[in-house]
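Record type: ASSEMBLY
Status: queued
Input:
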Amino acid sequence: MSIYELMAGTLYDLWPQSLRAFAPELALCGAIVCVLLVRVVLPRLPVAVWYVAMAGAAAALWLILPDLTRTALGELSGGEIFTGMLIADGYATVLRAFFLAFALVFIAFVQASKLLDDDADATELSVLALSAVLGMCVMVSANHLLMVFLGIEMASVPCYVLAGILRRRRPGSEAALKYAVYGAAASGVMLYGISLFGGATGSLHLPTMAHRLAELLASPAAAGEATLLIVAGLMLAVGLAFKLSAFPFHYWAPDVFEGAPAEIGAFLSVASKAAALGLTMRLAVCLAGGGAEPSSLPMAAGVGEQIASRAASPAGSDGRERVMIDRERTAGGENAALEAHAGTDRPALHDRAWLQASLAPARKFLYSLLALLAAATCTLGNLAAYGQANIKRLLAYSTIAHAGYLLMPVCAAVVAVGNDPSAARSAVAAMLYYLMIYFFMNFGAFAVVAAVRQAGGDERIESLAGLGRRSPGVAVCFAAMLFSLVGIPPLAGFAAKFVIFGSLVRTDLYLLLAIGGLNTVVSLFYYLRVVRLMFLREADAGAKPLVVPVFSTAGAYIAAFAAPLLLFFVWWDGLLAWAEAAAMALV
Amino acid sequence: MDWASKIPTLLACAWLLPLASFVIILVGGRKLGRAGRGAAWIACGAIVGSFCLSTIALAGWLWINPLAPPADHAHHGPAHASVSSAPEHSRERPAESSLHKSPGSPTAQPLCGIWYTLGEFGSSRVAISYYIDGLTVAMFVMVSLIASCIHVYSIGYMHEELDEVTDEAVRLADGRRLRRPGRFHRFFQHLSLFSFSMLGLIVAGNLAMVFCFWELVGICSYLLIGFYIERSAASNAANKAFIVNRVGDFGMIVGLMVFWAGLGTLSFGDIRNGAGEVVEQGVFSLVRPEKADHDLVIPEGLVRWSARGEISQFARAQAAAGVPAAALPAERIEQWRSSGWGYGLLVLGGLGLFCGCIGKSAQFPLHVWLPDAMEGPTPVSALVHSATMVAAGVYLTARCFPIFVPEVLLTIAVVGCITLLLAATIALTATDIKRVLAYSTVSQLGYMMLALGSGGWVAGVLHLFTHAFFKSLLFLCSGSVIHACRTNELTQMGGLARKMPWTAVTMLVGCLAIIGAGIPLVGGLSGYYSKDAILAQQYVFAAANPHLGWMFYAAAIGAAMTAFYMFRLWFLAFVGKPRDAHVFDHVHESPPVMTGPLVLLAVLAVAVAWHVPLTHWGLEPLLSQARPLGIDQPEFRGLMLASTTIPGEHLSHDASVHTSAALLAFAMGAAGVLLAAVMYAARKLDPADVAGQFPRAYRFLLNKWWFDELYHFLWVRPTMALSRWTAQLDQRVIDYVWDSAARGVTMIARLDDWVDRRMVDRALDRIADAVYRLAIRARGLQSGYVRHYVLAIAVGLVALVVVMSLYWSNASAGW
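Status: finished
Output:
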């Protein structure tokens, strides 16, 4: 493909398709620039930086809202943008909206919790949070391994800094350093994996990779490349597991959560995790043979000419054509490649049944890897949470354990992609639903920790003793969040666990189900320990008063996080149906 | 102005205003003004507002349905009516009978409609609907007017409740008197709820709604009678009223079920849609269809119900003959109807409904609750036991009159007659001022029932209205007396007229009104008109049914007794020497807030039955207009008791009947008053001597015919014995069985506990310990050194590669 065609194709679909779909991210970029400029150009502007940042996030959210409603109606056409680097389907739209909403809530929350009193710090935090969210948006809409890597780095690097946002606090700086070093190492491994993978399959474009992989596995020479593929896949998994804080790449999490302020903990545990999961789900489903139907592939017979002709006369095309950034395998250029492929006697590339049949070993591998990770992460997270004395550390392990629960529907989706698309779809929906509920319960829990800190408490779990008497409203809300994290019925956490376990049942993953169930029982212990402390133990005689009234900004925030837990238990179907609509795009 | 659409709205507002007041007081309570004083103003404002709206509605009603001049009663044909068993027969008659029907005003079309549909079950529906005719609007005005007077009066009467109250009648266990916070606002809260319930009962457009408000009225009376809940007499009386009413309501439910099951509707009137077409036929038009000229016809629903066996047989026969299922031929229905199928159901339904009225209107044999209910504050007695609650039974009887067959009407008449005699005799000897009035109320209610049962619809309802005014006046006067004397006993009063002139005069007016004082054939106080009408109807009834002539004499004697006990009361209280100097010294006239309503009610008690001067407009023409269609037939015979006819009311307007009745009533009243004057004012005859002459009769009457004792023996004691027996059964047998079972379970549990502790727990503890140690070890993985962490990436990756490769090489063999 000539550079001319590439340029023409890029220009051709840039305006009508790509930029329009990318508008929320552009708004976010604008917001970042504005936040920086406000500090520089108008240092005396009375409007706090917070509001500029919030306005930016709100604008981005507003831009994505029309797509969101179309997702709910199943109308979003969805497709690859930027010549296939990104994809803007319903699944990505829902997750992007989730991140944008999260950014809005997060900035408002940090502002309300009075973590920072310096305006300069506020600028930094806003810029960092917004750019991390930008990275997350790229992560969930990545359709190309380069974008995957880029997204992960864009999301991670601001997080390293966020962990140390309180510069004068030693534990914070230590946490940031550990996070950065660990992250760098993980990125290195992942990049190696990406290059190996690219080398083996000859493409970094996900749907293309899936097809190449299918060809490889179908050909009798597969056995030779199997080891290479396994190593590449595992290295790729290391990067994702780091973001997910999945065992055995979770080591950074407890130290970072303990060192960073609770607000940042909320950011890392909810948004960062959601992005990593969204990406993992897309990668896994794509490589398992699901995913969006690639609208065109350069090696398909006749497609090259089509692209050429349409690039020459853009008005005559339907605007859904893609030009692949593709490492040509054969030195002879595209036509030679086409001829070479035309010579082989394999079925047409668009035959999905063939694709899925060929990818069965890959599915088996993915399923085994994900199940292993899920089970190990879940178990380790729950066990290690037992002995913690610091509430943030406890929540860090709880986060790790939840990463395990959240990997289970990914596993189920991979298994079901081959034979039961509706089960796969409901598994994807289960993960999305769990993420939305997880947002309320986990963010709420960190918000309580932040509120207690602002009220003068410390981060030892013991210091929560007697909170039920000192500030009953907040204690009840916190208890509701903890019960929801366990998954006890009248709360949304139960519904979320229920749909996840339901997806496991539909795909016959009974061993994983048993592990998940046992872990839920185990997790009861350490969550209820906190509840017991709050309600059944009196405060120590010398303890600080530690009063967080419900009728205060912090109290209102906490209540606002607790209320949806009840609401979404009642309005269970509505949210789930919406998630199912979003999952249509993926499977 | 389109009054027909405004009147329901006006009445709805008038009905809901007291509810709003109730809610406000319920929420605001003691915070409304000082110690809840504001509650009184809210309640009074609401009920006065209701009165104004009702008056406007009445004006609107008269605007669209002007009263016709009284018809000429000279012509009465020999038409005869009975339960139409042959429709051909009734179809022949319209031309003829239209001459004889509705001799008074032409009956106005009632307004029926639905405010809100609660639910629909197939073709049946339960709705908040209305049925508005002259009776409804008149009742609305009467109830809201009397309730307004009583509300205002209560501001003065209940003022003690504003502060902390020391209840003299209640002794605590340690001998001290009960002190409790005042409940001023609570009183007005209940009054408002009561007004709401009563108005709802009146405006209700279907029997189900009537039943709901019927029960609400019962609950309100329970709350008000038991207002001094700490007094055991009051709480017992409240319980008694409630329980006795439940007995009546049982019958009422039976009646409701008959109509609901047989007719599929409980609505009174026809519900029409916007275009004026009937969408749902009401009970009235089903029982008295227009095409049968409003004669009573057994409705098809009841016929089908009672012939259901035959109908299913018919269907089976058709199926056996291989004929496709066809509708039942109409002739069969007519055939069954003419042979009286379903008539028994109509009797049963009517008797059931009347059963409820017996309870609510304190008729024999359920009259026992009303005298005890005098334990409530006197304004409550005035409201509950004159104009509203007890009137509800009479109102419902009048409302449902079109669906009552002669057998039911005869039952009503007999029950009313017995009640009026029974209560009047007890009132002769009662010494508690409020109990005299209570028995008088029972007796007057008996009059109303008697009038209704013997066909005098207007007479009975007119008496309901006039009685409401003078009896509330009498109760309020007695309240004024009690308020001043702090005792109910007539034996401690005497000569009060000097100290309480207003009360004495207004009470005298009330007494004159209740005995029906007036100049025969010219005019008189309100009671004169209604009592005359009742006696005239009795005269006609006795003429038509000679074997029931004793009812006429009973009514006449009752009139004499009424005159005697009312004036006995008045003489004892207001005339002569004070019998108790201590009481007399503290007596004072009541404040204007109490005497004002007395004067207003006295004026009404005199004049409420008068025509507007120089016109033919008045209460009686309004009620004549409200008389249901088709009930004023010269003769009305049932299928079961064919020997009894219910004569039409227009017969009693005959001049000769009227003259005899008026003279007789005057003579009886005068005799009673004279005897009372001789015994209690002039003291020519010592009452004690008279009582000594007939000691047994005196004791019999003083003990209220031993009714309480009889019921205690018949019902209460067996019930208590049964309850004791079941309690014993419960304790001795059932508890024993359960205790043994529980002991057995405990033993098993102990064994289980032992197993659990020794075996399961130990094992579980081991596991838990192991898990905990593992968990602590897992925590130990976290060294805190970043170099370890980064190393862990490498180690982890290598481990994963090894694990997965092993897995792969093992598993891929199978693929």
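Annotation: The first strand of chain A starts at residue 80 and ends at 81.
Annotation: Chain A has a mean pLDDT of 82.
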